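Continued from yesterday's entry.
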Amino acid sequence: ILTPNYHVFYSRNKKLDPELQFPLIVKPVCMDNSIGILSDAVVNDEEELRTKISYILRTYDQPALVEEFINGKEITVGVLANGRSATVLPTAEVVFRNWPEDECKVYGYEAKWSKETEQSKRVCIESPADLPKYQEYRIKRTALQVYNILGVRDYGRVDIRISAEGVPYVLEMNPNPGISPTTVDDEQPDFIPFAAEKMGMDYEKLIL
């Protein structure tokens, strides 16, 4: 199970691991809902990195997680139930439409929650994701492994980025992702209800 190379910073002056390759993405280590991940979260040199680390430490009073940025498809996979009964839902993809060529594709706070931003208008969710069958199988298997290894129960969501070489990297295991109905105020749908609908599971059945 692969994850991006990373380094946790408790101080802006901590030496950067020489094995980390730019571009890097900088996040608060303990936040949810992409809080702290804005359009400038990806940095391309050490000066930008130190500035962003300082912002995270000062603003959120917690360490900064610095990861190699995987510039590829963003896939999310929901899992329901427990143990041998666990079911992997259809994959869903964050599709970046008409994204500026000079801007990294980040599904951050602005894209998720700020409806009037350009980032939000350029993002949509599609399910199932547009993937070759072998890659879809590998991603679903990985998601189920992560779910079980971390002891998640009842429902969860695994977020994955696929590199340019076609390699899936796990970004996050979310043990309590959003499960709001998919028809709320024309917002981007929550992934799990959206994917469940694609396999013929209505909202009442999902909640039960």
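--- second protein ---
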Amino acid sequence: GDESFFPSFLGYMRENRDLAGAVIFEMSHRAFQTMSPTVARNIGRLFDLGFRFSIDRVESMDLDLRAMERIGVRYVKAAGSVLHRELLERGARPQTGLTRDIEARDVTALFTRYGIDLIADRIEDEKTVIELLELDLGYGQGHLFGAPRPISEHVYADGPALRPERARLAG
């Protein structure tokens, strides 16, 4: 949304559009819902260069999949507990052009129809996985699958001088 910074950033991204296959810009669900017209326009410019987006920290399935598709959202991440609560307990469904009822197990396919992968994150225990099995999710992340850990010594031994105290991956 910074009008003075964005033109130079966009120029850099234009010159390096080969990064589009490797860079995904992520924003919170709240930021997506409250983005200004300036932010939406700038996101559109990045999308036109081939960059894609991820929506994180989804707390409600009140999502407009058509709007997400239009600006290049390719990933939506919600905590496993949120997916369970919203889809299986409350029966909430994302907004689409469809008027028919959609079963919980079909929600992942619905996201796919709009070119979006639904990812369950913050999966901390097997109970959560079992609760989510009927949603036919293709992706999950969290401590159950592996806790954050230091990058192996060999990664920074031969490469640029990375200080080990900074060489940690987020979960």
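The first strand starts at residue 24 and ends at 28. The chain has a mean pLDDT of 85. Will compare against the first tomorrow.
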